[in-house]
Amino acid sequence: MNLDFSYYMPTRIIFGCGKLSELKTTPYLPGKKALVVIGASGAMRKYGYLDRVLKYLKENGVETVVYDKIQPNPVSEHVEEGASVAKENGCDFVVGLGGGSTIDSSKSIAVMAVNPGKYWDYINRGSGGRKTPPNSALPIVAITTTAGTGTEADPWTVITKSDTNEKIGWGNDSTFPSISIVDPELMVSVPPKTTAYTGMDAFFHAVETYLATLNQPASDRLALEAISLVTEYLPIAVKDGTNIQARTKLAWANTEAGICESLSRCISHHSMEHAVSAYYPNVAHGCGLTMLSVSYFTYLAERNPARFPDLAGAMGENLDDLPEKDRPMAFITGLKKLIKNVGLEKEKLSDFGIKRNQLKTFAENSFYTMGSLYDITPVELTLDDVVAIYENAYS
Hints:
Blueprint: E1 12-15, E2 33-39, H1 43-46, H2 49-59, E3 63-70, H3 76-88, E4 93-98, H4 100-112, E5 140-144, E6 157-161, E7 166-170, E8 179-182, H5 192-211, H6 217-239, H7 244-263, H8 268-279, H9 285-303, H10 308-314, H11 330-341, H12 359-370, H13 383-394
């Protein structure tokens, strides 16, 4: 192995059951007035999480303002509106409370609260303006209520420009959360299907960062453990969401996978899914990744099999009885089992209204908006290759 990498992971992670209550005593809060960002679904109010966060922050001497319009596939208009609310109210930090969409939005709002222009001015792919923000983002506190995106442990934020169907990830050193609270007790309210979608998202983050050409020793170890934990505990949590051991193991797997995204990177599987949900925002990210996954990883394993046996082993597949040439495809066997075990084996692209004649458009969009992830994919993929992967997934 040629060891050549950088390691930067500045987020303070407060992990464990009941840890949300540390908001009222922690000395590490980065300001005195917070914009608390939540989703538009109402879940944070319904389950009492918002009230608890506002109460704990008040006890710790922090004033709060709430912004509550974030969608499951968040859009740039809400980033700019949230940033205006932060500016108008003199907020000096941002709290993201919810799933990945909310925390991603809180990062982007924190950028725009202190920088001029439009959010898309700073995006460096697609139609983005490719500018560098002159100012560092406001500090960010992430409180995750799902085990899915790992955004509590990385700088990345994924936002859609809905008028051009561009869903693009972006981030810089200032968009790492300063503190992240990962409390598995907040995750027991997540419904079974959302548990499956978010858990598969975490799984693919780990798989992709292990395969990426800029993998490194720390991300490799964390990724393989995350894959093992998701394989074992996601089916349990889907079946019984109140199983706190399963929720805790998945929460850690998700945070591990987020750290992997900071130390390594996702690959073009994500580029391809972003194109799908940019055009069809009703497709949950983890669902889109799952529907593409067997086709995508089969294509890679057939052409660059080197790291796939490790992935299969992490999933508990027995490699000892297999000839060496068949070991890479044991990962595909394990992947199919996992998808079935979490109840997603019947999900297909056509169920969401997606037409076969749109697949080339998705392929072109994936290069235009997230082409940099193709550069670190361990197999060189052409436009025709990507169309073929979409076609196989569609079939």
